[in-house]
Design goal:
Elements (H helix, E strand, L loop, with lengths): L11 E6 L3 H6 L7 E5 L9 H14 L6 E5 L7 H9 L7 E4 L7 H7 L2 E6 L2 H5 L1 H5 L6 E4 L1 H8 L3 H5 L2 H13 L3 E4 L8 H14 L3 E4 L5 H7 L4 H19 L5 E3 L2 E3 L1 H15 L1
Parallel strand pairs: 1-2, 1-8, 2-3, 3-4, 4-5, 5-6, 6-7, 7-8
Antiparallel strand pairs: 9-10
Keywords: Lyase, Magnesium, Metal-binding
Protein name: CoA ester lyase
GO molecular function: lyase activity; magnesium ion binding
Length: about 280
Amino acid sequence: MCDVIRVMIRRTQLYVPSVSEKMVKKSVELNADSIIFDLEDAVPPEEKDTARKTLLKFLKELDWGDRELCVRINPLQSPDSFADLAALFNEEKVDCLVVPKAENDLSFLHKATGKGVLPLIETAKGLTKIEEIVRSEGVIGISYGIADLALSLGGDYKWYEGNQYIKTLIVSVARAYDVDPIDKVFFDLKDTDGFRRECEEAKKLGYVGKQVIHPSQVMIANEVFSPSREELEWASRVVEAYEKARKEGKGAIRLDDKLIDYVHYKLAKRVIEFRGQ
């Protein structure tokens, strides 16, 4: 049992179908910060047991280094989730359980397994109970599935795909309780420009990373969610100038004709700390 939740950078969380031996093996070579082995949507009902056995086999044989390893279990409303949890209970390499269609307090999962928990908001009930879900013991991040959510709400998937209320609600609740907000998957693998734009928008909203479904998306997301050279230079100048001013008893300073106060200092420190991880 894993009793310690590691502090991780989660610019990219790559979904890998657990039923595919080829893709599980390939994931060792990929540069995603987190790997999410999928036992849910990527696995047909008749192959669930095969997927569990395949995953457990390769968890014993392969080495992903210090990357975060997660497993998306089946919804807790499904009998398959019990088999998933039984299979993973003593698997020490698994850091985190990704919970689809989360709708209630998930503290029991962390208490029972010692693993981190990452809920997915995918239903109307889950959206209305998002604060209770995020406050659950052991939650390390949160994401959402817009297709399932649109279906639950009785709405149009395309309309909800860019819904700013949902995006802002999720990042706000995550930040309020100090867990990682991670943006949803982007399904159009050919539209790399659209994927980059969505990553950039998510970063501006406060998301730390993106869940991805193909290796081709990893490099773009890693790039977007890493501090740029300009951001690092700005952060270093802000920290240096503010700390010097604070020693002189000043609470706010002027830098490049802009007001810099404690909030800007904290933002700059966050950028520098990210670089150091």
